[in-house]
């Protein structure tokens, strides 16, 4: 939420975030204010820091996907990779 406000000209209001998050508007306002106080109202992130966090998040995402695939494979057995292009349906046939 804070990053969107800092780096975008168009962003959702706190009321929208509160509604989606299931908390009151006053609570989200307090949380936002506390966050900005904790970062001393400084939203600048260096290219180096951004790259480091980006890479870390990407590795978490990759690990999470890998973990989910392994869990599914364990439950169902290995799923063979195959080319399904021969059995692909046209968009017109999907509506029938």
List strands and helices in order, with pairings.
Layout: H1 2-7, H2 14-21, H3 25-38, H4 47-76, H5 91-94
Helix pairs in contact: 2-3
What can you see in these coordinates?
- By secondary structure, the protein is mostly helical.
- The protein has two domains: 44 residues, no CATH class; 32 residues.
- 65% of the residues lie in helices and 0% in strands.
- The chain is built from five helices and no strands.
- Helix 2 packs across helix 3.
- The C terminus is likely disordered.
Q: Supply the number of structural domains.
A: 2
- Compute the number of helices: 5
Low-confidence stretches: 79-96
Tell me the major beta sheet: none
Fraction of residues in helices?
A: 55-70%
The separation of the N and C termini measures 43 Å
Using the CA coordinates, give the radius of gyration. Answer: 22 Å
Shape: extended
What is the SS-derived class? mainly alpha
Portion in beta strands: under 5%
Q: What would the average pLDDT be, to the nearest integer?
A: 77
Order of helices and strands: HHHHH
Give a quick precis of the structure.
This protein is mostly helical and 96 residues long.
